[in-house]
Every structure is written in structure tokens, then in C-alpha cells.
Amino acid sequence: MLVNSPVLPREAFLDSLLQKRVAPVLALDYWYREDEQRFAPYYHLRSLLAALSVYNAYQRHASRRRLYFEREGEALQLAAAIAAAFRDEVQALGARAYIALIPMRELVHAQASGAFPLAELLRLRGIEVLDFAPAFASRAGDAGIGSLYLPDGHLTAAGNRLIAEQLARELSTTPD
């Protein structure tokens, strides 16, 4: 099902939040929680509001952990199925498919330590993986995570250069 096309105009998006009407795109947004948007009478109690903020942050953190680390979870199984379909389409065209795993800033060390199961799931399905997490973790250990990522999570020039160098190395040693 196609949603958020065209993208909601700014006013409609804000109205969907402020007027407590859930737009179609928000109803399907994994991270949207209507109860976090609703004003409650107890919100003037700062200590309770702080406790709710901590609770919501914990819940989001737990959701992220399930998404990225639960081997049998829907998210990883779906990602692996999409990658397998991609591989099959590429192979049908007579080419070789690779899946590149570029770690998110906050997952670099978990992914490099092998705690991140997506690479293993893909390899078990016979999908060739270019996993940049070990190189990123090594460089982050030497030069700091800020050398690879901007504060917003995008890669720096050095982060992009690391990917290019790793790609060149991996693909130059791969048999045709």
C-alpha cells in the first residue's frame, strides 16, 4: 500500500499531531505513539513528566533493540527476505549481488562485535555481504566516532572514504 505520497503538506502534518487526528501516514509510522502526543492533565507535574520521558525513551530503546538484534524477529526476517529477492533478481540478470551493511553510528561497536545478527542471517541465505562494521569500529577506536559520523548520523568525508577503500579492496579480490 502506498502511503505518504504525495507527502503531507506541513500544515496537514502538524494538524494531524496537534488535533489528535491520525493521518494515514502516522497510523503506519512505527515510531509514532499517539499517547505521547496527547496532552494529559498531569503533564504540569514536572517530576511525573520526567519519569514518563524516561519510560518512553526506555520503551523506544527496547523497540530498537528488538528490531536490530532479535534474530527471529519480523524486522530482520523481512530484511533478509528483501535481500534474497534482490539477489535473485540480480542473478537472473547474470550479475553478482552484494549487500553492503553500513553501520549506524550508535550500532558500530555492537555490529562489529558480531552481536548484530543481520550479516549472519544474510550469509546463511547465501547472500554475499560487505560488512563495514569491523573497519568502522577499528577506525572509531583509533580516531573517535566523530571522525566517521556527523552529529546527525550521516557519514563524514572520512567515513565515505573508508567505505570506498573497503569496497575497492573487497571487489578487487573477488573472482568474477
Using the alpha-carbon principal axes, give the shape.
Answer: globular
Biggest sheet overview: 2 strands, parallel
Q: In total, how many beta strands?
A: 2
Query: What kind of assembly state do the chains in view correspond to?
Result: single chain
| Range of helix content | 55-70%
Residue fraction in strands: under 5%
Radius of gyration: 21 Å
Output the structural class. Answer: mainly alpha
Task: Specify the number of helices.
Answer: 9
Order of helices and strands: HHHHHEHHEHH
Spatial ordering of strands, largest sheet: 1-2
Distance between the termini: 38 Å
Low-pLDDT ranges: none
Average residue-wise pLDDT: 83
Give a description of the structure.
The chain has 176 residues and is mainly alpha-helical. It is 56% helix and 3% strand. The protein has 9 helices and 2 strands, in the order H-H-H-H-H-E-H-H-E-H-H. It has helices spanning 10-18, 24-27, 34-37, 46-69, 74-92, 108-112, 118-124, 133-143, 157-172; strands spanning 99-101, 129-131. A two-stranded parallel ribbon has the order 1-2. The longest helix has 24 residues, at 46-69. The two termini are 38 Å apart. The relative contact order is 0.07. The model has no long low-confidence stretch (mean pLDDT 83).
